[in-house]
Amino acid sequence: MSRLSRSVAIEVPAERVFPYVDDIRNLARHMSEGRSMPMMGSKLKLEIMTPEPTGVGAVYRYSGRMMGLTIDFSETVTKYVAGREKVWRTIGKPELLIIAGYEMRVLIEPVSPTSSRLTISIDYELPRAGIWRALGWALAGAYSRWCLTSMVEGSKLDLERGPSP
């Protein structure tokens, strides 16, 4: 397992940060809305599979194609401390390319009454064999750093900007 983490100070109280990052649609925006270079011009469809979109047991599914190859994986929330922490991991047999599976964690820490620290981390496994293992070894770290940076910086920007008029 490899672990990466990114943190950012946000000039918004923790009680406003957690609901934003708890909504998987906000954190997954970098994979589901844009057509970025790290996604090779692709985007994934995000589905919330459970009636409750958050809390332990919530399930999310991503599907799509990248470079003509199928991407299809689900994740479930395994730990949930409202207002502070959320952990989720891939389940089943994820169809991913450069990683085999992962666990992610979001942690919100109050810094002052008007600011907080957001930390997002990922623990990931490389594919077990073949060309995908070699590609994972070469690309998984850079891709994971891009994902984490997109999530923390996008959250900071959206939260500090505030609601649109």
Structure description:
The protein has 165 residues and is α+β, with helices and mostly antiparallel strands. The chain has a single domain (2-161), classed as 2-Layer Sandwich (Alpha-D-Glucose-1,6-Bisphosphate, Chain A, domain 4), CATH 3.30.530.20. Helices cover 30% and strands 41% of the residues. It contains 4 helices and 7 strands, in the order βαααββββββα. The chain has a 7-stranded antiparallel β-sheet with strand order 1-7-6-5-4-3-2, covered by helices on one side. Strand 6 and strand 7 (115-125) form a beta hairpin. The radius of gyration is 16 Å and the shape is globular.
State the gist of this model.
With 165 residues, this protein is an alpha+beta fold. The protein has helices at residues 14-22, 24-27, 29-32, 130-161; strands at residues 2-10, 45-48, 59-66, 69-81, 85-95, 101-112, 115-125.
Please describe the topology of this protein.
Layout: E1 2-10, H1 14-22, H2 24-27, H3 29-32, E2 45-48, E3 59-66, E4 69-81, E5 85-95, E6 101-112, E7 115-125, H4 130-161
Antiparallel strand pairs: 1-7, 2-3, 3-4, 4-5, 5-6, 6-7
What characteristics describe this protein?
165 residues; Alpha-D-Glucose-1,6-Bisphosphate, Chain A, domain 4; 41% strand; alpha+beta
Elements, N to C (H/E): EHHHEEEEEEH
How much of the residues is beta strand, in percent? 35-45%
Number of helical segments with 4 or more residues: 4
What Rg, in angstroms, do the CA atoms define? 16 Å
Give the name of the CATH architecture: 2-Layer Sandwich
Return the structural class: alpha+beta
CATH superfamily: START domain
